[in-house]
Amino acid sequence: MRAALYRATGPAREVLRVEEIKRPEPGPGEVLVRVRASGVNPTDWKARSGATPRPIDGFQIPHHDGAGVVEAVGPGVDQARVGERVWVWYAASGRPWGTAAEWTVVPSPQAVALPDGCSFELGASLGVPALTAHRCLFADGPVAGKTVLVAGGAGAVGHYAIELAKRAGARVVTTVSSPEKAALAAKAGADLVLYYREEDVVERLKAFGPTVDRVIEVALGANLALDLAVSGPATVVVTYAAEAENPVLPVRACMTANVTLRFVLLYGVPRAALDEAVADVSAALHAGDLTELPVHRFGLDEVASAQDAVEAGAVGKVIVVP
């Protein structure tokens, strides 16, 4: 099969290659998926670049997320899964078989049924972003009737945080930096969209509600002062992204607000919580409550450009089509 891979970390155009390698075969409890779309996330280019290095056993095919069709199953897996449309998550976690290839092999629970009405691009967009959004929203309990602030509502995690929060009965406010992003956040269902570069966000938020209950934060250092200004004793600020420089924590201000800070990295989330997230995301998908962001498509030979586009902050979802 043709696969994009790297044998050492470094710049995309120096270490990523497309090669012919032997197609993997599914082992016990595994399924073989013909990949129709491979989703690219920041975690993928960070691992490849060496910013967040992980062990490489000979080679690494990148990208955790994808979608396609089950073509074969290993021992212990129901043969009825053959031919099933699926979305794939965690494909490259501790394994060489990421989704930037014509085929991938994953444990059967990591290939989840994709409804016929959903595109492969949507399926490949879930995984890391939707599961991260779910953990950020629900690690501290239900959000029904609560106010959720999503920083960066046009990003992939922000997009699914808005949609999952609305599905769960929350009021959702989001901050964006451009009219293009505002349109995406509004389309996702946000009740209030704020331009943080042009508006008094704190004043608008306090008019919407005196405090927020959950903050889904993409830039803790840049936004913590704002978050604390609209927080109260019941507020949980959840951050899922690391900035280039570690923020200085204003301890007294955090104490004054009585705020709770939570940090989320998907790889450390307990398996039971991951399974719950997968089930909830799947239910939302089958109900039609999750939607696509604008898609930027790249061929397999353009995988370096695809990863560079994500690193540069492309608005929408970058997809590699093997």
Describe the fold and architecture.
- With 322 residues, the chain is α/β, with parallel strands linked by helices.
- The protein has two domains: 154 residues, Alpha-Beta Complex (Quinone Oxidoreductase, Chain A, domain 1), CATH 3.90.180.10; 139 residues, 3-Layer(aba) Sandwich (Rossmann fold).
- Helix content is 31%, strand content 24%.
- The chain has eleven helices and 15 strands.
- Strand 12, helix 9 and strand 13 form a beta-alpha-beta unit.
Give the gist of this structure.
Helices cover 31% and strands 24% of the residues. It is of the alpha/beta class and 322 residues long.
Low-confidence stretches: none
What is the level-2 CATH architecture name of the largest domain? Alpha-Beta Complex
Give the percentage of residues in beta strands. Answer: 15-25%
Q: Would you give the CATH topology of the largest domain?
A: Quinone Oxidoreductase, Chain A, domain 1
For the secondary structure, the number of strands is 15
Secondary-structure-based class equals alpha/beta
Shape: globular
How many distinct folded domains? 2
* Tally of helical runs: 11
Averaged pLDDT: 96
Percent of residues in helical segments?
25-40%
Largest sheet: 7 strands, mixed
Please compute the radius of gyration using only Cα atoms. Answer: 20 Å
- CATH H-level homologous superfamily name of the largest domain: Medium-chain alcohol dehydrogenases, catalytic domain
Following the backbone from N to C, one meets helices and strands in this order, namely: EHEEHEEEEHHEHEHEHEHEHEHEHE
User: What is the CATH domain class of the largest domain?
Assistant: Alpha Beta
Distance between the termini: 10 Å
